[in-house]
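Lab notebook page, bench 4
Experiment: in silico fold of construct C2
Operator: M.H.
Input chain length: 78 residues
Purpose: comparison with the prior construct
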Amino acid sequence: MIQSTQIREHMDVVGSDGGHVGRVDKVMGDQIELTKLDLASGLKHHLIPMSWVEVIDDDTVRLSMTKAAAKAAWRTTH
C-alpha cells in the first residue's frame, strides 16, 4: 500500500501509459494536489486521489490509469 509520506513535492506524476499528468505540489490528506505551474496541468491546480497511485519509482508517481483518463477525472481547484 502506498503511504502519503512517500510522495514528495515536485515529483513527476505519470499515467499508466507513461504520459505526463503533472507534478506534485503537496499531499492533502488522501488527495494529491498538482502544481499549477506545469503546462500539462493547464496552469491550474488539480486534485487526484491517492487511490489512483499504483507505484512510486524514484522521483515518479505512477498512476493506475492512463494520462487521458486521469485528466478526464481529476478535480480542478481555484
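Observations: The chain has one domain: 4-76. Residues 67-73 form the longest helix (7 residues).
Next step: discuss at group meeting.
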